Amino acid sequence: MTNLVSLHEAFSLPAHLHAHTPAELRGNDRSDVKLLHTERKSGRIQDHTLTDLTELLQPNDLLLFNRSRTIPAQLVSETDNVTVRLARQLTETSWEALILGKDKTVVQLQDGVTLHVQGDGSEAPLKRVTFQGLQEPVLSFLHKYGEPIRYEYINTPWSLESYQTVFASVPGSIEMPSAGRAFSWKLIHQLKQNQIQVGFLTLHAGISYYEDNQWPDPLHHPEAYMIPAETITAIHEAKARGGRIIAVGTTVVRAVESYAKNKPSHQGAWTDTTNLFIQRETPLQLVDGLLSGLHEPHSSHLELLRAFLPDDALLSSYQHALQNNYLWHEFGDVHLML
Questions:
Q1: Between 66 and 121, the higher pLDDT residue
Q2: Cα–Cα–Cα angle for 84, 88, 92, rounded to 5 degrees
Q3: Which of 180, 282, 299, 312 could in theory staple to 165 by disulfide, Cβ–Cβ 3.0 to 4.6 A?
Q4: How many CB atoms are closer than 10 A to CB 70?
Q5: What percent of the chain has pLDDT over 70?
Q6: Per the record's keyword annotation, is Transferase included, yes or no (predicted)?
Q7: Among 195, 194, 197, 200, CA closest to 180
């Protein structure tokens, strides 16, 4: 654990490396981002752009994407001066939520709807809350009055569409599965033309950060996922042809490795929940590579990256990214570990 601690300590993210703006507003296209490639076997580091994936990947490789669609999970009560960030749905009207602002037991929302705090959530600082007075499904209410969760490094209230991947189709993610954001349909088409296979699954991503340098414990936050039959078939066919499985995002790693752990020979669609915590000691059964965003110093996602790279290679990669002005967060650059 010493090297990971040293990574946390050595890794201070300067303000100018926070990506404030969607890539398509900084350049010509949402695919106009840099790609840092760290070779898993050698630790060699190379600078690329995302569109270079057409050359970095090989025919018969399989890229797996998360098609979960971001929901507007943040509600603001101007009456009570409270911001509510929904974290996980428990029942039709009950959720775990992060409540920021005044300490309230009842929060006044729009259309006469109220949010009642029922007690503590699965871990601090989450609370169990229940919507009362709804005249429509929660998701409809959120789309009327909610907004995407936005952290302090984002100054502009970008639209919900800015927090979607182009292939997002199944609503449910509290925060965008952001590793896939930079992919345009044009780039996906070019990859397919190069005989690189593409597959989709769904895992609804939860909240990634609380406050005051507190991050969620993955063990306390089981996430539902679904892998379609055609994706499972594509995984087995790629393996049989000698292709590599590249997960686009940590959510995809969790879903695929959870499936492998439970029923690796299953051929039909697979639906389950997972609280699998992937770390350095976790053997990867199906996933060969990961394309991910760049993660903050104390994020639990860094622990998952240790399953793909030794600590010294991970530290060198992040030092290189810092020195070469790679951008962090959901609108930032990407890191390929393959």
A1: 66
A2: 95
A3: 180
A4: 26
A5: 92
A6: yes
A7: 200
- Nearest alpha-carbon partner for 139 in 220, 69, 67, 224: 69
Quick: pLDDT tens for 175-185: 999 999 999 99
8 A C-beta contact, residue 255 and residue 201: yes
Q: Which of 293, 284, 281 is nearest to 328 (CA)?
A: 293
Q: Compute the distance between CA of residue 334 and CA of residue 326 in angstroms, rounded to an integer.
A: 8
pTM of the predicted model over 0.85 = yes
How many whole angstroms separate alpha carbon 266 and alpha carbon 245?
Answer: 17
| Amino acid at residue number 241 | R
Q: Which residues contact 83 (CB under 8 A, 6 or more apart)?
A: 74, 75, 76, 77, 99, 100, 101
Which two three-digit tokens encode residue 160?
Answer: 């919900």
- Residue at 148: amino acid letter: P
174 and 206 Cβ atoms separated by less than 8 Å: yes
Residues 6+ apart with CB under 8 A from 109: 75, 77, 115, 145
Q: 231: which 2 tokens?
A: 């994706």
